[in-house]
């Protein structure tokens, strides 16, 4: 068994940290605002991310006010690697602040899924510290560093249509121009080049199709793109759910998290919302995003 353990100190009292870990309106400021939490032993706490495409659920197993929280995983990522794991938060006064010991343990393997979870927690633990010390956290989506040198945008949407319908909107020229680019030239075959054109001041994006599982997953490698997109890749993953399709979008390989990265994140959110709107209402918002000058 392996664990994710993080020890750090925050400039806030144990009472203040306790509130940030147990009160819904506080959790919303550093982790996610889509949640259901009652700080009582035996209750189920649920946290939802990326338009409900990533849902985790814990049983509150132990509570010792201002000192200790213990959760047992009841529902985790669809990959199943959280099954049987537990999360412990231990708080201890440290000078004018609090020492926090975080432990997510009982993983069966230290594999790629474990590394993803470790990076995920590190992002949100930093968000917790920032929220407690500055009043501003970074809840919601996160930038995942796969190898310590590159970062990714990960977003999700649940769309109320079946996966085949989503796949068509992602791979058919006539549909792509209803929610994304002004022009599209795309053949969903391995090794082909896909080109998406936008009116000025935006330009042209060109990708090579490097992975393809029709109806389920595809990955594009950037070939002709702006300089800060160089070496990046885009992955679309579809999963059927009762309410339609979970779409998990990843844009991976950024060298740094800076203003360009944040602008790209904002643009992709705009177009993912456009895709959802197009498929559910028939009306998307293709073309150059409003924030591109």
Overview of this protein structure:
This protein is an alpha+beta fold and 293 residues long. It has two domains: 2-134, 2-Layer Sandwich (Alpha-D-Glucose-1,6-Bisphosphate, Chain A, domain 4), CATH 3.30.530.20; 145-281, 2-Layer Sandwich (Alpha-D-Glucose-1,6-Bisphosphate, Chain A, domain 4). It is 26% helix and 39% strand. Helix 4 packs across helix 5. The longest helix has 23 residues, at 112-134. The chain is elongated and about 60 Å long.
Fold blueprint:
Layout: E1 2-10, H1 14-22, H2 24-27, E2 34-36, E3 44-49, E4 54-64, E5 68-75, E6 86-94, E7 97-107, H3 112-134, E8 143-145, E9 151-159, H4 163-171, H5 173-179, E10 183-185, E11 193-197, E12 204-213, E13 217-224, E14 233-241, E15 244-254, H6 259-281
Antiparallel strand pairs: 1-7, 2-3, 3-4, 4-5, 5-6, 6-7, 8-9, 9-15, 10-11, 11-12, 12-13, 13-14, 14-15
Helix pairs in contact: 4-5
InterPro entries: ASHA1/2-like_C, START-like_dom_sf
Organism: Dictyobacter kobayashii
Pfam families: AHSA1 (PF08327)
